[in-house]
Amino acid sequence: MRLSISLTLLALALFVVSLLVGPAELSSGDSVAGLFAGGGEAAAIIMREIRLPRAILGLAIGISLGLSGAVLQGFLRNPLAEPGVIGVSSMAALGAVLVFYSGLAGSSLYALPAGALFGALLAVLILLAIAARQGSTLTLILAGVALSSLAGALTSLVLNLSPNPFASYEIIFWLLGSLKDRSMEFVAIALPLMAVGWFLISLSARAIDALSLGEEAASSLGIHMGRARFMIVAGVALSVGAATAVSGTIGFIGLVVPHLIRPLTNRMPSSLLLPAGLGGAALLLAADIAARIVLPAGELNVGVLTALIGAPFFLWLVVRARREML
Amino acid sequence: MNLQVKNLSVVLGKRQVLDAISFDIEPGQVIGLLGPNGAGKSTLMRALNGHIAAAGAMQLGEHDLAAIGPAQRARLIAYLPQQRTIGWRLSVRDLVALGRLPWRAFGQRPNARDESAIARAMAMADIAPLADRVAKELSGGEQARVLMARAIVQETPLLMADEPASGLDAAHQIMLMQSLKRLAAEGRTVLVSLHDLTLAARWCDQVMLLNEGKLAALGTPETVLSDENLAIIYGVTAHRAQDDQGLVIAPVGLRKASTGG
Amino acid sequence: MLKRRKRLPCLSGLVLLAGALLVAPVLAMPKRVMSLNLCTDQLAMTLAEPGQLVSVSFLAREPSLSMLHEKAQGYPVNHGLAEEVFLENPDLVVTGTYSLHNTTALLKRLGFHVEEFSFAQTLETIPGEIRRMGALIGQEKKAETIANDFDSELKAIAARQCGKHPTMIAYDQNGIASGRGTLADSVMQAAGFVNLAAEMGIVGVAPFPLEQVIAAQPDVINMSTPQTAPTLGEYVPRHPAIAALPQTRVGAFVPEGSLSCGTPLVIKAVRALAALRSTMAPCPESAAP
Lengths: 326, 261, 289
Description:
The structure holds 3 protein chains of 3 kinds. By secondary structure, chain A is mostly helical. Chain A has one domain: Orthogonal Bundle (ABC transporter involved in vitamin B12 uptake, BtuC), CATH 1.10.3470. Chain A has helices at 2-20, 28-36, 42-76, 88-101, 111-132, 137-161, 171-175, 184-203, 205-210, 215-220, 225-247, 253-261, 269-293, 302-324. In chain B, the strands form 3 sheets. In chain B, strands 6-7-8-3-9-10 form a 6-stranded mixed beta sheet, with helices on both faces. In chain B, helix 4 packs antiparallel against helix 5 (140-152). The longest helix of chain B is centred in the last third of the chain and has 16 residues, at 170-185. In chain C, 40% of the residues lie in helices and 13% in strands. Chain C has helices spanning 12-22, 24-28, 38-47, 69-72, 82-88, 101-109, 126-136, 140-159, 183-190, 196-199, 210-216, 240-243, 266-280, and strands at 33-35, 53-57, 77-78, 92-96, 114-117, 167-172, 176-178, 194-195, 205-207, 220-222, 249-251. In chain C, strands 6, 7, 8, 9, 10 and 11 form a 6-stranded mixed beta sheet that branches. In chain C, strands 3-2-1-4-5 form a 5-stranded parallel beta sheet, sandwiched between helices. Chains in contact: A-B, A-C. Chain A binds chain C through residues 22-24, 26, 40, 42, 45-46, 49-51, 100-101, 103, 106-107, 109, 111, 162-167, 169-170, 173, 180-181, 183-185, 298-299, and chain C through 59, 62, 64-65, 173-175, 207, 209-212, 214-215, 217, 226-236, 239-241, 244-246.
């Protein structure tokens, strides 16, 4: 509990910092006034229409990724499971790209989460079919590598085939996500879906605890495996799908955060859920703040930063996992 | 609660793994489930616990085991699978506490009742001194005891354990059987598969002998573990003796092929 | 295969001279001209006589980029591949300096006559480019007329301006603004606007943070015409923050595709912005022409 409170405070502090950082260089006084005072002043517009949605998305997407990583690791008893590594994010991006850029839904923003949810769902189902029963770390990771390479290639292909010549410039966004210039419209389409996903994931807390002892033992402890599988699949698809629909693929948050936090818990998979969500929010907000300030001119894609942190971490985990296997 | 099974059959792929098994067991006994490798011991337990589809009727007391959901089943049957899986670096105590899940509502913390059950189960499995150790880092035998405690703590009318004695040292094998006896004395049914005929003969109230998916015999160890049954089904000869506490059976040699038929 | 490895610098006059000395009859009036670049497409389609231009780039048919996209339907298209050029075997290939660098080098090695046009352009360079294209394809007279008309209309538009100069930012897909040295910048200036992006130090076409656009509160934000095929980048200039600016006119004020290339058609963009300016900062009666 103390852990969750500290992480909440950390995430909130970073949320505030996120509101204070931006190229317009508003003073903190102007920022606060802009956020709460009325009127059409530039400061108010910048705070409410640009920085607030960005900070909200950083918080919510961070929670989604941290939570999904924690629940997938618990469910698959696999410390390397993570929406980005196992290809769920890439498939979500592919789904969003397919539906949105084809213009099937006009240029409606709702095309993004619709496609992304479908992509994420498909990915989770494929991975479960391939890897859940066997439970081998290696099988899951290899399947994920194949899935994300395929999804990445198809994403590039779809964007290159778009009749709009500017679409191909957006390949980088979908492969290495960003929170730049997302408006409240994006918050509106993604946040409710993510919240439903969080709720479903939280319902699976007992199941992932019981699954520490394997599927048969879990089932004999009263876990309805079909129901648990549904809640986790739907919860991860909703939260990662909605997150990816508005931010592109942001990898490794769900890998790094549960690992840093697990030693601070009793290591029961359910007791990791809330701290992992909060920690994910803190890490993504911090990365997004860094993405805005590390380069004096312009900004980095936050997905680049999380990959820079996460990929070496992943390698280290692989080496360690080989030594002690889970 | 009586455990009643009628014409239980299981087909896996094209193989008939269980063939029309029927029995009726009174509560308060330790039932040893015996039979050579591949006889269907694990399959019988898994079918009773709903892990594999089976034809026929299974009844525990007034409950039709085929009709109840996992939550209700978990309050009736505790099951220790043969496969000993321990994920994560859980402490022994936390792991044993998982056995109380069926009795706790969602989000509820363990209450005093849970705590006393946990303490009792850990004492029965002789793992109280290991409470704060990381379960994954224990020896195989210690892990087996921890997982047994997890099943005991469920406090169900029927306890099924698939080879709980394997990997245990002699003292702990005896402690395990004593604990099972005590649980049976509380009115529970304990169904335990064993490979050790000595252990089965000594501690089980009844033994159920499976052979190639069929129920070969069910009864007291004296009657079921006859020289003939051991020869035909296990293909061994055994030395047998009787002391003041019961039967001693020790397999001593392979049955010679010429004596058959 | 004749190998003319001309290693002349980009001084087009010298290139022309050398070319003329070597293969004078071809240059006098190339019968078969091939254009590999969107912007040379525009010039070539404006100046070439029927049958002279054998193909244009596929982008010439793209409405968002090409003012002459309808006319381009009448020409075969190429994708800027050396193989296409080789099969077509034109007398003259016109292309951009930067766009297909490897192709250009290869074609030159294969002995084709390749002319490159630089597109770091402003309004001032356009008449020169018109005349150069005219000379290359033997349509000097037509080019001269078009270039002169272009110059004189620019002067006329400049003469009609008075009073204050409203501020403008040309803001595009993915938050890209046109800064100093761009065609859009010179068009804004010619139409009597101050390009805030250039004032704030943006050079060329570069990312411009949305927050700074809002902070600058320009009088006009010009964006490109929305496409039928959607992109996420299009949502940046359509961001609610821009719509929330109370005093700013936001819209696509220039004809679609008119700012993508320095061609005589850019005059349409200047006209459109000049018209917008005259409604925003009308000249007093006395000063009106």
